[in-house]
Amino acid sequence: MATFPIINMEKLYGQDRAATMEMIKDACENWGFFELVNHGISIELMDTVERLTKEHYKKCMEQRFKEMVASKGLEAVQNEIDDLDWESTFFLSHLPRSNMLDIPDLVEDYRKAMKEFAAGIEKLAEELLDLLCENLGLEKGYLKKAFYGSNGPTFGTKVSNYPPCPKPDLIKGLRAHTDAGGIILLFQDDQVSGLQLLKDGEWIDVPPMRHSIVINIGDQLEVITNGKYKSVMHRVIAQTDGNRMSLASFYNPGGDAVIYPAPELLEKEEKAKAYPKFVFQDYMKLYAGLKFQEKEPRFEAMKAMKVSREGA
């Protein structure tokens, strides 16, 4: 079994650049996931964000989660639950507008730290998109432009806690899915594991590493690369002890961005079987009801929608 790809970004700026770019290319083509170290976001900031995220959960969310568990009788379930995730979450929107002031129970220190963290993640996302462009032979900025729409990309962070679960064999922390959007940057707990990806029919642990950022490919990058890079099914396994923190930042196309395979990546014989062309918000409407199912029928549905629109 190949080892999970870990990329040291410092090596992009020296004699190891070519080998590091090749590692990124291999990770995108064969894993859909990789882990970044030395990515430029300060360790002190990450430690602050982690501390404040865990404090916020304890103070503002833990009791609500326990009440939800009690109201649904989840402590005593006997059969597998397939319509619920064992997670406590809230969503911070950064672009095109921030919702941070709209969330009443965030303390000012947390808002400030998350604003700084989001700025670092946004910069890292755009740097990564240009590295992918370089590997794909696309002009610099192509992917950011493809995501742009009329108001720029959409960008936000899902803040999750996965509390200890009494029945992890019956309740998933987060059910298996691919991510709908563009590129996902995850700051995960390094003490409590749980994230797994599906590779060659096997579930593989994504190793928790201190101060790393885990990257995964979303459905939109699969479309733009016409399947050269693929989004991958992943899930979170709940644990019986330990509360796992997860901050997943989604750098996605704008709602009205038109997504389609990059013409430079289409060989002549591929044009007939190319991925569909669609408006991102139309895909998101479909995804909302089909998140925990295979992605291929979603792509087929978008092809059918395109045909029906053209025929109208």
UniProtKB/TrEMBL annotation:
Keyword Lyase listed: no
Catalytic activity reported: 1-aminocyclopropane-1-carboxylate + L-ascorbate + O2 = ethene + L-dehydroascorbate + hydrogen cyanide + CO2 + 2 H2O
Pathway field: Alkene biosynthesis; ethylene biosynthesis via S-adenosyl-L-methionine; ethylene from S-adenosyl-L-methionine: step 2/2
Gene3D superfamilies assigned: B-lactam Antibiotic, Isopenicillin N Synthase, Chain
GO biological process, one term: ethylene biosynthetic process
EC annotation from Swiss-Prot or TrEMBL: 1.14.17.4
InterPro entries per the UniProt record, alphabetical: DIOX_N (IPR026992), IPNS-like_FE2OG_OXY (IPR044861), IPNS-like_sf (IPR027443), Oxoglu/Fe-dep_dioxygenase_dom (IPR005123), Plant_2OG-oxidoreductases (IPR050295)
Enzyme class: oxidoreductase
Keywords recorded for this protein, A-Z: Ethylene biosynthesis, Iron, Metal-binding, Oxidoreductase, Vitamin C
Gene Ontology MF terms in the entry: 1-aminocyclopropane-1-carboxylate oxidase activity; L-ascorbic acid binding; metal ion binding
UniProt cross-references to PROSITE patterns, sorted A to Z: FE2OG_OXY
Sequence ranges assigned to domain Fe2OG dioxygenase in this UniProt record: 153-253
Pfam families: 2OG-FeII_Oxy (PF03171), DIOX_N (PF14226)
Entry cofactors: Fe cation
Presence of keyword Transferase: no
Family (UniProt): Belongs to the iron/ascorbate-dependent oxidoreductase family.
Full protein name: aminocyclopropanecarboxylate oxidase
